[in-house]
Structure formats: structure tokens, C-alpha cells
Amino acid sequence: MRGEPPIRAVLGLAEGRARVLLGAYDGAVRVRRLQTFAILAAVVCLALLSAYVAEVEPSTFSKNLYRFTNYLYRILPSLTVANLAGDVADWYWRFGVWMRLLIETLLIAYLGTLIGALGAVALCFAASNNFGRNKALRFATRRLLEFLRTVPEVVFALLFVIAFGLGPMAGVLALGIHSVGSLGKQFFEIVENVDMKPAEGVRASGGNWLHTVRFAAWPQVAPGFASYALMRFEINVRGASVMGFVGAGGIGQELISAIRQFYYSDVSAILLMILVTVVLIDLGAEQVRHRLIGLKGASA
């Protein structure tokens, strides 16, 4: 193009050298584009293959979509402006029972999260590369954490229901064991990113492994541990609601009973209670996490 400065003037190099560099750059850009297109093509092919294996048929989906929307319409309560208070009271005719079961669900989630967090703290340092002193122990600990988080909570709940019978205990154990695996991985990744200079200082002053963990690592990882534990509590509240489907206590038992008996208005009432509870917990936990992150940044 006219008025365009020569290549050597732009790069400050001899024209031949500049053209070689620009040619190499263009080649690298072409290779990067080919890699991007290859990755996108692989993603599309895998998505199509997955849809074929899973028997995903858009025609069937569009043909039967009305069934889902029709069910949603059925569970909506009949509320009128003239008798709004009475309609709401009729909608939540078992509010006391549902609230008690919802509180039970929250307690199941809390206790399961507490068990999971304590177990994860006990295992995460042994699983980390910088604090795990024994290679075989580190390998075994990581495989254990993988197993605990791979098995779904519902499977654990079914096993514990068979072993201990129906009730909240099965839900607590199922959530606790699964949370150990999930939090354990997150925790040891936090441990592996700590600044090791304080640890070297503790060791140089004669401290043992426990002293190093307590005085060098723990002040750095505690805010992150608390943040992930709060996030896990949010997840476990939703999980505890599902645990009731297999008889592990909580509001889920009442929800599955209402679904099976076609008590449509009860289904929407229970779902709304669960939704509001989860939203409130998410908002509260988000504020706490932000404060913890802020305190960590201030201390750093």
C-alpha cells in the first residue's frame, strides 16, 4: 500500500532479515490457527458422537416438550387476588412439617460438610507434593481421595440406607465421605501453592513436620480452606435434598412422595422452599467468602 513504511524501517532491521522474521511469524500464526480448527473439529465430532450414543433426538425432544411444560403448569398453585392469603395458606398447608424437614436437610448438609472438611484437612497435607514426605503414602492418599469423590453421593446413601436403615444418618455419612474426596483435592492443591519460605525458616529453626504445617502452612491455607468448605456446604444443601429420594432423610423424602402421589401443588411449594433456602445460603456464603479472601489479601 502507498504511504506504508518499509518493513526494515518498522522493525529496525535489514529488509531481508525482517522478511524472514515476518515469514516465520506468519507460519506460526497459520500453525496456531490450524491447531484451533483441529480442536474445534474434535469437540464437534465428540459432541455428535456423544449425542448419537446417548440417543439424543431433537425431533423427539421438540415433539414431547409440551409434556414438560404441561407438568410445570400443573404444579403451579391457584392464587387469586381476592383470596390471596387463603390460597397461600392452602398451598402451604403442611408448612410446619416441611420447614422441620428443611431444617433437617440443612443440618444433614452442615454435618456432612463438617465431616468432609475435617477429613480433607487430615489428608490434604499427606497428598501434597511439598508436604507429603512419603511417596507411597502420597500416591495412596490421592487414589483414596479420587475414589471418594468418584462414587456419587446417592450410591453411598443407598449403601448406608441398607446398612443403617432409613433416616438422616445415611445422608450425613454419604455427604461426609463424598465431601472428603472433593475437598481433599481442592485442599491439597491449595497446599501445593503456598510460599515455602516460611516452611524453610521453621525447619531451619529446628521445627518438625507438624510445626511446619502448623506455623508455616496453616496461616496461608486457612482462608482458602474455609472458602472451599463454604462452597461445599452450598453444594451439600442441594445434595441433601436429593438424598431424601433414597430414604436418607430431609425434605427430599417429602418431595419424592408428593411427586409419586401427584400432589402437584405440594411439589411446587416444596421446590420453592428449597430454592429460596439455597439462594439465601449462596448469598450469605458469598459474602463470607469475599470477606475471607479480603482478609487473606490484607494479611499478604
UniProtKB/TrEMBL annotation:
GO terms for molecular function: ABC-type phosphonate transporter activity. The chain crosses the membrane at residues 37-54, 74-93, 105-128, 154-177, 235-256, 262-283. GO terms for cellular component: plasma membrane. PANTHER family: ABC TRANSPORT SYSTEM PERMEASE PROTEIN P69, PHOSPHONATES TRANSPORT SYSTEM PERMEASE PROTEIN. Keywords: Cell membrane, Membrane, Transmembrane, Transmembrane helix, Transport. CDD domains: TM_PBP2 (cd06261). The keyword Transmembrane applies. Its main location: membrane. It is found in: Cell membrane. This is Phosphonate ABC transporter, permease protein PhnE. It comes from Hansschlegelia quercus. InterPro entries: MetI-like, MetI-like_sf, PhnE/PtxC. It is a multi-pass membrane protein. The keyword Transport applies. Belongs to the binding-protein-dependent transport system permease family. Residues 102-285 form the ABC transmembrane type-1 domain. Pfam families: BPD_transp_1.
